[in-house]
Each structure stands twice: as structure tokens, then as C-alpha cells.
Amino acid sequence: MRVHQIPSPSSLVPSPSSLVWLFSSYTIAVDAGRALFVSICLWLAAGLPAGAVPHTDSHILVCYGDSITAGYGLRQDQAYPAFLQRDLNSQGYHYKVLNRGTSGATTKDALAGLPYILRLHPAVVIVEFGGNDGLRGLPLTATRRNLDELLSRLQAAHIRVLLGGITLPPNYGPQYIRQFQQMFREVAARHPAAFVPMIYKNLIHVPGTIQPDGIHPTAKGSAIIAATLLPALKPLLNKGG
Q1: Residue 100 CB: number of other CB atoms within 10 A?
Q2: What burial class does residue 12 get, using C-beta atoms within 10 Å of its C-beta: 0-12 exposed, 13-18 middle, 19+ buried?
Q3: Which pLDDT tens digit goes with each residue over 17-60?
Q4: Fewest CB atoms within 10 Å of the CB: 1, 72, 197, 224?
Q5: Does the annotation mark 148 as catalytic?
Q6: Coil vs helix vs strand at 156
């Protein structure tokens, strides 16, 4: 996803034209061989043979999403799921947080990879998809349908769900952006899921939270995302297990 920060006078921020070029380059790079690549990455992300689950005495919480979840441009311990693990540990919640993010993944890819997520038998899944659909200008009806099916299938497996929403850059136009944001609200309203309408809401005006590409969070931004999700996540968790 791409977010515009309000620059401080002392900061060096790419111009709008350069950000457009950066986004275009990112999209083209992801789209090259995308169907095969993303499918393989989602399969590898599960990292387990059929029927196997990670050995842990804790319940499993899966962060399932795109490059924001994966920690594009960061070390694994700088992505938001790693910060979420630390936050949960410090507050006495015994959950094993698994990062199952794949850069470039769309809601269609999320459905394709869902069988591998279900094999993990998670207690809770944080769903963070839709940004790449929006950036590509894909039909909102298709994105809405995919998210709806994704949540339905997770909840049919008795998995508690938190849906994380996102927005789009201003150049996508106010009407499309409103419709895009409303889509997340509509999907959340149809399901007994926890919901954070905008996972970037607490970082977009904070210096040092977005990488130079104007798209992805820094480690500082990832920590803020984890803190933003936590209040909505806590009601889904069992204290001490």
C-alpha cells in the first residue's frame, strides 16, 4: 500500500511524480510472473506439509496479508507481526504469532492460499488484503466478494477474525477512495469480525514511519500498526492462553 506523509521542513520527501514512478515500478515488478510467483510464495509461507501444524504450547494467531504484513523492505523482526508478538507477550497473552504475508498478493491470491492457512489451525487470523486490488484499480465488486468469501470460510472453520482496512492515494479520486473504504465497512458489517477501518491511521502523519518508496511502513511504522490493531484484537483472545 502507498501512503503520503506530511513532510517536515527538514525531511527529504520524494515528489509526487517520483512516487508515481516508484509505485508503477513496484507494481510492474510484482505483476511479472505474478500468478505463479504469488501462488508459490503463499504455499511456502505455510511452510508445512499437509496436516502438520507448528509445535507450540500456545494458540496460533496468523497475520495473513500482503506486503504490509510481510514486512517488505524490512527484516522479519521489523514487520508488524513481530511487534504484535512482543506486545502480546508483554501483556500476558500466550499466542504464537505467524507472519503469513506475501508481497503483491491480492484478495484473489488470499483465497488461493487459504487452504494452507487453515492447515495451521489458527485460533485467530488478522486479514490484511485489498490494497493491491485497489492500487491496480480492480473492480470493487470482485474485491468485496473475495473478502466476503475469505471471512466466511475462516469463520466456518471456527476461527476468530480481525479485518484490517486500508485506503488509497489521493490521485485515485475521492469517489473511488470513498467506495473503496466503504467496501471494508460493508464486509465487516456482514460478519462477526473485529474491524480496524484504517490500519495506517496512527502513523500517516508521524515522521519516519513510511519507507522512501512511499508505500510500505518502516520498522517504526510497523510497531505503530501492531499497536493500532491490538485494542480490536484483545476481545478475540484468551488471557493466558
Answers
A1: 25
A2: exposed
A3: 333 444 444 444 455 445 555 555 555 555 545 445 555 557 99
A4: 197
A5: no
A6: helix
Catalytic residue at 213?
yes
Is 11 an annotated catalytic residue? no
Whose grid coordinates read 510464495?
41
Domain boundaries, the chain: 16-236
Task: Please tell me which residue in 66, 103, 133, 216 is annotated as part of the active site.
Answer: 216
Task: Summarize pLDDT for 69-80 with one digit per residue, the tens.
Answer: 999 999 999 999
Q: Where are the alpha helices (DSSP H) in 60-164?
A: 67-70, 80-90, 107-118, 131-135, 140-156
Catalytic residue among 67, 87, 103, 222: 67
Residue 239: all three cell numbers together: 488471557
Question: What is the distance between the alpha carbons of residues 54 and 204, in angstroms, rounded to a whole number?
Answer: 35
Separation between Cα atoms, residue 90 and residue 109, nearest integer Å? 33
Q: CATH classification of 16-236, choosing from 3.40.630.30, 3.40.50.1110, 3.40.50.1820, 3.90.1300.10?
A: 3.40.50.1110
